[in-house]
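Appendix B. One record, verbatim.
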Amino acid sequence: MSKHYKHLSEEERDRLAILKGQDLPMRAIAAQLGRSPSTISRELRRNASSGRSSGYLPHKAQTEADEARASVYPGTKDHICTSVHGGIRSHADLSTRPHQSSKGL
């Protein structure tokens, strides 16, 4: 039996903060969110905030998760090194076939 991991959504993080603020036990929070208690425990531990009564800031947690995901999966051509891209373009002769223009690279 394979397990499929699904990240917490922003709505789940918001609900988690509300339920935690109501001082519900972790297992009760997990049951209401349909998640494993270990998932809830890990989320609260990773995103604990000192100096606040609830100790969990869902929007900060979501922002950090989005940033972490973006750094692992950049996935867009905006992250291509522009100097390399520019160098390739400067050597490309659009009137020739690809195998002919690659000789100058």
